[in-house]
Design goal:
Helix content: 10-25%
Mean pLDDT: 87
Length: 150
């Protein structure tokens, strides 16, 4: 039997769904989400998504301030190499990935801010404006953070 995972699904159009899934696999075109508020399972098509956030809980901590960038993290960890993602909606996400390849439809990212609510994130490449790995990831993160300060 598959493990039940708490997920927050963000569609490319901005729609957000929260619930659990037992059948998410990165190589499948769809999976089923059982809404956190109850009701029948919903079929979710991966190509319509921005990302799938595998979370500790659905509410998170509204008072917590996320730490942007890499927090002076190492170039590589047991969770992979540094990677920075700038989504088409402007969101910046930094972390580590073992599975990023430019020709794949998506990849898992382990957030650099491990104290946050996200355990891991499945990023849909089509929803990204820019993806950089290695030293280029630091440069992308710094550029986006500097633009936000200006």
């Amino acid at each position: 039997m598959s493990e039940t995972m708490k997920v927050v699904v963000r569609a490319a159009d901005g729609k957000v769904l929260k619930g659990t899934t037992q059948d998410f696999f990165p190589n499948r075109a769809s999976f089923h989400l059982i809404p956190s508020g109850g009701g029948p399972a919903i079929e979710v098509r991966a190509r319509q998504l921005k990302a799938v956030f595998f979370v500790k809980d659905f509410s998170g901590d509204a008072g917590r301030k996320d730490i942007p960038g890499f927090i002076a993290g190492p170039a590589e960890t047991g969770q992979g190499k540094k990677i920075a993602v700038r989504f088409k909606d402007g969101e910046l996400m930094c972390g580590y990935s073992l599975s990023y390849l430019p020709d794949r439809e998506g990849f898992f990212l382990f957030p650099s801010d491990s104290a946050g609510n996200n355990l891991r994130v499945y990023v849909v490449v089509a929803a990204c404006a820019e993806i950089k790995a290695g030293p280029s990831a630091d440069q992308l993160a710094q550029r986006v953070l500097d633009q936000r300060k200006a």
